[in-house]
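Schema walk-through. Below, the input block comes first and the output block second. Nothing else is stored per chain. Lengths vary across the set, and this one has 296 residues.
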Amino acid sequence: PTIALGYLLSILQRGRASVDRILDVLEASPDVDDVDAAPVEPESLDGALSVRDLRYAIEGREVLAGVSLEVPAGRRVAIVGRTGAGKSVLARLLARMLPTPAGAVFLDGHDITRIPLATLRAVVGLAQQEPFLFSTTIARNVAFAELDPDAPETRDKVRSALGSAQLMAEVDAMPEGVVTIVGERGVQLSGGQKQRVALGRALLAQPKVLVLDDPLSAVDTRTEAAILDAIDEASRGRTLVLVTHRVAAAARCDQVVVLDAGRVIEAGTHDELIARDGLYARLAERQALEAELEAM
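--- output ---
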């Protein structure tokens, strides 16, 4: 009886700790909410983005210092810059995955902090550089936005999206195919495979605004070219914001915006920025040299 009592006390203590943790989660206030949102229907939005003097700090350090840019509906814009320039933070703020400041980011004239989250998520799709994958199948991760991820027609969409992300051949080579369990946070997949699953998820949702946060950082040059072709096809008639450090990807966009230390230092077309001989031109020259060395 004494041993049993000790065992019960141990179980009780673990149960209390678990309940406290669950209550912490249930009672936590989200950083992003839509309590002040006004009704906006997804059909009424075309996908024009406007960023006005966007400032954002993390733990007291200013990451974005007055970023302003305009992305007309249906246009393709590349955000380029060195590591730590604030590109990924800007991408997450555009999709409101971080607490975007009020009066800084607008979608078709609507402050995105006043747009219901359900509407915003339906209109703006984000593929992150370090995506979160659920411990379920590849198909369910890609079809996350679908009402019925297991429907036969959804499975066809999944295969098409994975094909566009240049992952279908690798998935077919897996023993379970698209129903392969990826593990917690996608532990069973490589970094490049996880990025392409996230890209397939964004492409399948077909949002009016597609924000891609460096989806090519973990793929080889040949795969990159094929993915860029698929992105070109998927972005027709949609607004595309492509965050990248690769000049070859940025050159395909209608406009290039160069960030450095949280500020916009250059903006224009690929040819215009090459002619200015600024940071973008230096990045292009260095990457061209690296490509030549790899080819030797």
